[in-house]
Amino acid sequence: MATAPSPEVSADQHVLTAVSGSIGSIRLNRPRALNAITTEMVAAIDSSLRAWATEPLTAVVVSSSSEKAFCAGGDIRAVQENSLAGNYAANERFFATEYSLNLHMAGYQTPLVALIDGICMGGGLGLSVHGGFRVVSEKASLAMPETTIGFFPDIGASYFLSRLPGGLGAYIGLTGYRLDAADALYTGLATHFVPSADINAVPQFLAESPRVPIDESLRRMAPHALLEDSYLATHRQGIDWCFMAPTVEELLRRLRTHDSAWAFETAEILETKSLQSLQVTSALLAWGRQHDLRRCLETELDVALRVTRTADFIEGVRAALVDKDRTPRWSRSQFAGFDAFGKSQWADPA
Predict the structure, then answer these.
(1) SS3 call for 134
(2) Which phi and psi (to 5°) does residue 34 adopt?
(3) Coil, strand or helix: which one is 174?
C-alpha cells in the first residue's frame, strides 16, 4: 500500500519522485537547462511509472521545480554533438527511450496530471499531452518549434497534432507558434486552467479529495473561466483555409493570396524555416492522420535518425543553440516522402 511518503532521490538528481498518500509525484529538476530532458531523465520517469503501475494511486502528477519552465524539450544540443561525432547509437538510444515513454504514458492506467506553469516545448509536450489531464496557468507557453532548428515535431506529434480540428495541427507544427493558456485550452492540448499562484497546490488538493473525480477537482480549483481570447480562434478561418493545403507549396501559395496581414506575416515566418523540415512535418501529419500512436512513433523514430544526420539539422541547431546568430543557411531538401510502409525516403545530398 502506498500510504506514506517515500523518499525523493538526492537533490542533485534531475528527476525527483515520491508517493504521498494516493498521489505519485514526478518532478523535473534541471532548472538551469529549463528541464531539457536527457536519456537518463526519460529512463528515470519510465522506471517510476513502472514501479507504481500496481500501486493503488489516484493520480500521478508531473511537475517542475523551475519557475520558468515545465520542460523546454529534449536536449537537442547533445543530439547535434552526437551527430557531429558520429555517435548515432547514442541518438537512437535517446529517441527510442523517449518515444517508448510517450507510448507508455498514453496507455498508463493511473491518471496522469501535468502541471504546465511556464515553457513547455517539444519533449515537454511529450511528457504532458499523452496523459489525461494537462493543467495550464496564465504563464504557460506551449510550442513545437522544431522546424526552426532543422528538425520536425516528434514525440507523437504526427498523431496528436494531426487530430486537431481543421488546419490547427499543421499551423502549430509548421510555424512553431507559441500557444498561451487560452490557445492551449481552445485546441484541447490543455484540459484545465489553474492560476499560477495555486498550481503547486494541485497534488495536495487531489490527495485531500481522493473520491472526487479529477476533472471535478481541477475545475473546483479555478471556478472562474480564463477571460483571454485565443489568437488561434481569432484567425481560425484563415488557418483552416491555408493550412489544410495538401502540400507546402500550395500552403505558401494560399498564404500569399489570402490578402491579410496575418497571412503575410505567417508566410514570412515559414520562409525562415528549413524547407526540408516543413516537407517532413507536412508529410508526417498526413501519415499520422491514418495511423495509431504506436505506428506514428515508429515512423518518427525512423525519420529522427535520418534527419539528425542531415546538414539542415546540424546548421539549425548551430544557429539557434550553439552560435545563437539566428541566421541558419539552409541546404536543399533531401526528403523524398514515405513509402507504403511508412519508411522515409531520402535523396543524396547535392
Answers:
(1) strand
(2) 50, 35
(3) helix
Instruction: Write out pLDDT tens, residues 147-185.
Output: 999 999 999 999 999 999 999 999 999 999 999 999 999
Dihedral (CA of 175, 181, 185, 191) sign: positive
How far is residue 44's CA from residue 341's CA, in Å, rounded to a whole number?
32
209, burial (CB in 10 Å: exposed 0-12, middle 13-18, buried 19+): middle
Please provide the average confidence, as pLDDT, over all residues in the chain: 93
Lowest mean pLDDT among 6-20, 206-220, 240-254, 335-349: 6-20
Residue 36: φ, ψ to 5°: -55, 130
Task: Determine contact, residues 279/246, Cβ cutoff 8 Å.
Answer: no
Distance between CA atoms of residues 219 and 212, nearest Å: 11
Place of cell 534531475: 14
Euclidean distance between CA atoms 30 and 33, whole angstroms: 6
Tell me if residue 336 falls in helix, strand or coil. Answer: strand
Q: Are strands 335-338 and 69-71 parallel, antiparallel or unpaired?
A: unpaired
Q: Which whole number is the average pLDDT over 316-340? A: 94
Do 69 and 119 touch, CB atoms closer than 8 A?
A: yes
Give the span between the Cα atoms of 300 and 306, in whole angstroms: 10
pLDDT at 348 over 90: no
Residues acting as catalytic residues:
74, 123, 146, 154
CA 297-31-72 angle, to 5 degrees, is 30
For residue 350, the model assigns a pLDDT of 55
Q: From the CB of residue 38, how many other CB atoms can be counted at a distance below 10 Å?
A: 19
- Using alpha carbons, list the distances in angstroms from residue 114 to 55, 191, 206, 289, 305: 19, 10, 13, 25, 28
Count of CB atoms situated within 10 Å of the CB of 83: 20
Length of the chain: 350
Tally the C-alpha atoms within 13 A of residue 137's C-alpha that lie toward its C-beta: 20
Lowest mean pLDDT among 121-130, 168-177, 222-231, 245-254: 222-231
Partner residues linked to 136 by β-bridges: 116, 193
> Within a 13 Å sphere around the CA of 93, how many CA atoms are in the beta-carbon half?
12
